[in-house]
Write a structure and sequence with these properties.
Length: 317
């Protein structure tokens, strides 16, 4: 009998698909449908079950699972109109067919479309995380350092807020007039009751309803007055200027900082990630792996929040 010397890679390939070679069929999916294709069994079921048991017993788990930082998580899309996912390869196959750890882990973003026939030609399938993040951060930096768009949007927002302020004032005046009318109604009911010497259930019901209306109007008036006071006290344009100045200072610092420890590196990532989440509406990658970035700038909302987190966090570096 002649024995065949199987290579390590061939054995690993069989073990990877051990269930298929044991039960005699392979599972494929196409356009969302699942198909079972018969194959010639290469191992018996008892051997497969023994393999599963041994593999489970030999599993090792790291004490501290590595946490990978993905700057564009939730933002990167392709022509398939799917939000890309991210993964990091920490091991590789050596020339000898051994599964060895990489000296430097490699991270990438990829299109989650599992069916080739549904993936559009303009979809590049994957891109290295370093390339994608460098592109998007570079464009975000240019966006923050050139605040013309931010100021233009803020100007429009200030106009909207001014209109809102005027509307609130009109509503306030209307409520004051309604309160005056309700006061007159109540006095008329009381006067009529005194003339007729009436103090029955109908009178009590009328007074309760009038007081309910008055209470409702007063609550609405209090809310309006608080909102009007907020609008009156804030210098919107000055707040925008302060926010943009802080945004530029923080972005410039993040662009130049060189973290010295993993902890510092993670803190810098968190700050960059928050900037990306705040300002990037969408990052669309094309077939050449060039990324077009659409920004959203909620300048007024950010400017008046008094939450200048960039400067506070930079102080910790």
């Amino acid at each position: 009998m002649q024995f065949v010397q199987w290579s390590r890679s061939s054995i690993q390939a069989i073990l990877k698909s051990a269930k298929e070679y044991a039960y005699g069929f392979k599972t494929y999916s196409r356009a969302g449908q699942i198909f079972h294709i018969p194959v010639a069994p290469s191992i018996d079921i008892s051997t497969y079950e023994l393999f599963v048991k041994m593999r489970e017993e030999n599993k090792t788990y790291p004490k501290h699972r590595r946490q990978n930082d993905y700057l564009l998580s939730g933002h990167l899309k392709c022509a398939c109109n799917l939000t890309w996912r991210a993964r990091t390869a920490t091991h590789r196959n050596s020339r000898k067919g051994e599964w060895v750890e990489r000296k430097t882990p490699i991270s990438a973003y990829f299109c989650p479309q599992p069916h080739k026939e549904l993936r559009l030609p303009e979809c590049p399938k994957s891109v290295s995380a370093k390339r994608a993040e460098t592109q998007v951060w570079g464009k975000l930096y240019e966006f923050a350092m050139n605040p013309d768009f931010l100021f233009a949007q803020a100007k429009d927002r200030v106009k909207q807020l001014q209109q809102r302020y005027e509307h609130l004032q009109k509503e306030q005046q209307q409520i004051l007039e309604e309160l005056e009318k309700e006061f007159v109604k109540r006095q008329q009911v009381i006067t009529e009751a005194r003339k007729k010497m009436r103090a029955d259930a109908d009178f009590d019901e009328q007074m309760r309803e009038l007081y309910k209306v008055e209470e409702r109007l007063k609550r609405r008036l209090t809310t309006l007055e608080q909102e009007i006071d907020t609008y009156a006290r804030l210098d919107w344009e000055e707040k925008v200027k302060e926010y943009v100045a802080d945004l530029q200072a923080g972005t410039e610092e993040l662009n130049n900082v060189i973290p010295k420890t993993p902890e510092e590196q993670h803190r810098v990532f968190l700050m960059k990630k928050q900037l990306v989440d705040e300002l990037v509406a969408e990052a669309m990658i094309d077939g050449k792996r060039d990324i077009q970035v659409e920004f959203r700038a909620k300048i007024m909302e950010l400017a008046v929040s008094n939450n200048y987190w960039i400067l506070r966090m930079m102080a910790k570096l």
